Amino acid sequence: MPKITTILFDCDNTLVLSEELAFAACADLINEICEKQGVEKRFTGESLILEFVGQNFRGMLGSLQARYGIKLTPEELEDYVKAEEDAVIAKIRAHGQPCVGVMEQLEKLAAEKKYHLAVVSSSAKRRVVASIEKVGQDKFFKNEEVFSAATSLPVPTSKPDPAIYLHAAKVLGKDVSECLAIEDSKSGTTSGHRAGILVLGYTGPYPPERKAEMTQVLKDAGAVVVMDDWSEFPEALAKIEAL
């Protein structure tokens, strides 16, 4: 197997604890859409996480339109996507925190200079940059090496589509076989796996009662190793490199 030269980090709940903040903002907007469209269903941030974790807001709106008969014009959809981005960024700038233990591992990787580091997210690039800036991770990632399925591609998409991983590898000049993706969600893990990239699963932010379930979900989606804490990263990386 070719050696790993490049580590591609998901952002939300892998680098930055932003998922709950984001879904709370999403719920407000989606409930507003449901009310305007006469749809009785209402969501909380928590219920959205259970249904849509790993998808971006555009992907969620697509699923909601299909599932509940919601009809949005292209202009309305773009207006809501922009409004969601603004709302989430405001929450992240106020309350964003790094995932537990990730800063120490990023510092070690930066000092080692052995791997190329990049961010590959479903979220809009503006939001990803705001997240990593808020927690002081922007020093580890060049701006042009932050990739977004929502804004870096000619046609916006969302994980589990592998397009953003394939795009990132191409821009970085890497073969997918030399990349490792780190993902906390089924859709993200599926995206990396479909792109032909080895995936390291991460269950850190999930509540204790869901960790065993999510470990299996990530393995079923293609993760070759799953870690629960960033302190396990060096051992997990060594395992993957020994494959």
From TrEMBL:
Alphabetical list of InterPro entries matching this protein: Beta-PGM-like, HAD-like_sf, HAD-SF_hydro_IA, HAD_2, HAD_sf, PGP-like_dom2
Cross-referenced Gene3D superfamilies: HAD superfamily/HAD-like, Putative phosphatase, domain 2
Record's keyword annotation contains Metal-binding: yes
Protein name: Probable HAD superfamily hydrolase
Keywords recorded for this protein, A-Z: Hydrolase, Magnesium, Metal-binding
Natural source organism: Cephalotrichum gorgonifer
Cofactors required: Mg(2+)
One Pfam family linked to the record: HAD_2
Highest classification ranks of the organism: Eukaryota, Fungi, Dikarya, Ascomycota, Pezizomycotina
Keyword Transcription listed: no
GO MF term set: metal ion binding; phosphatase activity
